[in-house]
């Protein structure tokens, strides 16, 4: 298929395109200004010539009207003057001027007089080199004053200026093109360095960073931004790896426990209490399935990237009442009607996780309140969480009481699910000291 010039242009490198574009614009601008300069200069010089010629002509006319013309007429600036009488004869001239042939014949004189504007005349037929500017004035008694001034010098100067511009302009354009080519090359060098090192980055490379140029320009900020992105990606990947290894770790102990119980039971079938074994195995299986469910919940939260699964109006007070009812030791102190937008199942999981924690750690009672401003609190009177750990416990697989019996505690995903779900619903979670015990304060935006 034929390639259009536009396609060809688009295929060229940035360096070439920028250089050509800059040179073209400069060439155009210079050509335009050269043309303007020559035109203005030409006009200004001609105006000056016309003015002085006119002054001379007027002076001669005044003398002609007064009949005080001398022969030859004297002018001080080389203006040629012919005074022609009513019958077309030349009566007075400046020194060295033709006395027989008028510079302009009768018709031409009448033309110039009618237009009132000076005219241009080739001087060669009158043995004058170059062109002349001619002014015609009429005087008394049918006399006509013809004044002319050679403009050869002006034309030579203009021609010289044009020649200088003709050579200088392309030279300037070439100079600019070379300078742009070099400068753009220098500017683009760090970008190609960035590109090369970006190409070298593989997912196994240890340090994945791009070289940051020393100059504090756009390329510098591009490299810094890209490095920021790389480090965020690396962190995310590390978190993912840690999650996988933590999950595997958590799976190992219930699986080992199941295996041990079954091996013991099968190794000594005589006198084996199968219901007991089954109970033990069932307990471990429940732990495994809870872990799987929690991991799935977190994976879904990650997938959705901070938005709830649904945005339906949920009667939070209803959810709270139903959930708290399932816990014998819990007391629902306040339960104002509250409607929030979100996912009822996810919100009930939040409360379940908090209740599980509170019931597990409390020494006597658990109190739950829900106020009309969308603030839900779960308070227990257990050991509480020390100030310095109150942020950390929200991380995945973080357990403070890992020394305690594992059978009771979970994998350490509960609070992570709580915080991420609440954030997805546009709310906040805070842990407070209930002295004694812990108060978890969840506040959710109320839908009106
Ligand atoms: N009400 C509480 N009182 C004292 N400590 C608590 C309380 N709630 C949570 N913690 C501490 O915070 C840790 C993290 O809680 P989180 O709910 O995330 O995990 P978990 O309860 O151990 O396990 P999971 O919820 O996955 O079954 C707990 O291991 C516990 O040490
Ligand atoms: Mg928990």
From TrEMBL:
Keyword Cytoplasm: no
Keyword presence, Transmembrane helix: yes
InterPro entries: HAMP_dom (IPR003660), HATPase_C_sf (IPR036890), HATPase_dom (IPR003594), His_kinase_dom (IPR005467), HisK_dim/P_dom (IPR003661), HisK_dim/P_sf (IPR036097), Sig_transdc_His_kin-like_C (IPR004358), TCS_sensor_his_kinase (IPR050428)
Enzymatic class: transferase
Principal localisation: membrane
Taxonomic superkingdom: Bacteria
Domain Histidine kinase: 246-448
Regions that span the bilayer: 20-41, 164-184
Catalytic activity field: ATP + protein L-histidine = ADP + protein N-phospho-L-histidine
An example Gene Ontology molecular-function term: phosphorelay sensor kinase activity
GO cellular component: plasma membrane
Keywords: Kinase, Membrane, Phosphoprotein, Transferase, Transmembrane, Transmembrane helix, Two-component regulatory system
PROSITE patterns membership: HAMP, HIS_KIN
HAMP domain span: 185-238
Pfam families linked to this entry: HAMP, HATPase_c, HisKA
EC number: 2.7.13.3
Subcellular localization: Cell membrane
Name of the protein described by the UniProt record: histidine kinase
Source organism of the structure: Nonomuraea jiangxiensis
């Amino acid at each position: 298929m034929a390639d259009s010039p536009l396609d060809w242009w688009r295929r060229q490198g940035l360096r070439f395109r920028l250089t050509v574009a800059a040179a073209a614009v400069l060439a155009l601008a210079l050509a335009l200004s050269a043309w303007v300069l020559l035109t203005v200069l030409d006009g200004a010089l001609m105006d000056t010539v016309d003015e002085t010629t006119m002054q001379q002509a007027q002076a001669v006319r005044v003398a002609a009207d007064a009949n005080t013309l001398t022969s030859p007429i004297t002018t001080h600036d080389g203006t040629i003057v012919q005074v022609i009488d009513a019958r077309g004869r030349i009566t007075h001239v400046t020194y060295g001027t033709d006395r027989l042939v008028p510079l302009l014949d009768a018709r031409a004189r009448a033309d110039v007089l009618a237009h009132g504007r000076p005219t241009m005349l080739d001087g060669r037929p009158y043995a004058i080199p170059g062109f002349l500017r001619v002014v015609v004035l009429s005087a008394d008694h049918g006399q006509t004053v013809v004044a002319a001034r050679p403009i050869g010098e002006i034309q030579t100067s203009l021609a010289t200026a044009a020649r200088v511009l003709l050579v200088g302009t392309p030279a300037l354009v070439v100079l600019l093109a070379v300078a742009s080519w070099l400068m753009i090359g220098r500017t683009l060098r760090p970008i190609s360095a960035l590109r090369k090192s970006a190409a070298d980055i593989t997912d196994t490379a240890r340090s994945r960073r791009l070289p940051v140029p020393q100059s504090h320009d756009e390329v510098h900020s591009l490299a810094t931004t890209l490095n920021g992105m790389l480090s965020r990606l690396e962190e995310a990947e590390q978190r993912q790896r840690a999650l996988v290894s933590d999950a595997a770790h958590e799976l190992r102990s219930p699986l080992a426990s199941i295996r041990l119980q079954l091996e013991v039971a099968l190794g000594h079938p005589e006198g084996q209490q199968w219901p007991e074994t089954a109970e033990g195995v069932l307990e471990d299986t429940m732990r495994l399935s809870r872990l799987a469910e929690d991991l799935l919940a977190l994976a879904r939260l990650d997938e959705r990237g901070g938005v709830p699964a649904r945005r339906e109006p949920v009667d939070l007070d209803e959810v709270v009442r139903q959930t708290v009812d399932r816990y014998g030791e819990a007391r629902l102190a306040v339960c104002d009607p509250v409607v929030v937008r979100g996912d009822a199942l996810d919100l009930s999981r939040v409360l379940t996780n908090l209740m599980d924690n509170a019931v597990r750690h409390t020494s006597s009672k658990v109190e739950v309140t829900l106020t009309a401003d969308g603030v839900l609190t779960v308070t227990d009177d257990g050991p509480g969480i020390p100030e310095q750990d109150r942020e950390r416990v929200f991380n995945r697989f973080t357990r403070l009481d890992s020394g305690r019996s594992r059978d009771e505690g979970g994998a350490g995903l509960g609070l992570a699910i709580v915080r991420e779900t609440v954030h997805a619903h546009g709310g906040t979670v805070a842990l407070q000291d209930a002295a004694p015990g812990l108060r978890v304060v969840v506040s959710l935006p109320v839908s009106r």
